[in-house]
Specification:
Mean pLDDT: 94
Shape: elongated
Order of helices and strands: EHEHEEHEHE
Strand order of the largest sheet: 3-1-2-5-4-6
Number of strands: 6
Largest sheet: 6 strands, antiparallel
Structural class: alpha+beta
Radius of gyration: 17 Å
Helix content: 25-40%
Number of helices: 4
């Protein structure tokens, strides 16, 4: 099995990301640290194929030929291998990703059922994980400090700490 990440973003400005960035900067005191904030719908596909090239071709077909992941009128997408994060920026700005998932969200299972059934992909798609990927450009002394800052911004602990994730029902991975 080969795993592929599918990131789906809006073609137009993402008002959810803009609002979150505004709140983090103006109301929560991260105006110096937060340089950029973007958001993408995240899908991790476990594909029953022999090679990475076959996996990328199948993932591209799923993105372009089904209506489960991408609406070409409003989305752009990117395929990548897991762990293939955004490149580091120059200077003191570090790129950090925060993946937020909801283990009780049944929409990934619904999409997987559709792929197995009515879309006739059979067992070629073995697993599907869905989440929201926040891409942060953070000013910090080093990468570890940037990751700690990203977690502080993401995980809600109090009214003035954390915004992007509710720890009572969601899970978070900072990378």
């Amino acid at each position: 099995m080969v795993e592929i990440e599918l990131l789906v973003r809006l073609k137009i400005p993402d008002v959810t990301a803009l609002t979150a960035a505004n709140s983090l900067r103006r109301r929560m005191g991260y105006s110096e640290a937060l340089q950029r904030l973007r958001r993408a719908d995240y899908y991790q596909l476990g594909l029953n194929v022999a090679t990475v090239d076959e996996a990328l071709a199948l993932a591209k077909e799923l993105a372009e030929e089904t209506n489960l992941f991408v609406n070409p009128n409003k989305h752009v997408y990117e395929l990548r291998l897991p762990g293939q994060a955004a490149p580091e920026s120059a200077g003191a700005t570090h790129e950090v990703e925060v993946l937020i998932t909801d283990p009780n969200d049944g929409s990934a299972q619904g999409a997987l059922t559709a792929l197995h059934g009515r879309l006739a992909y059979g067992d070629r798609v073995a697993t599907l994980t869905k989440g929201v990927l926040w891409l942060m450009g953070l000013r910090a002394p080093d990468r570890e400090a940037a990751k700690a800052l990203a977690e502080q911004m993401a995980v809600t602990k109090r009214i003035d700490e954390g915004l992007l994730m509710n720890p009572h029902f969601q899970e978070c991975v900072v990378r």
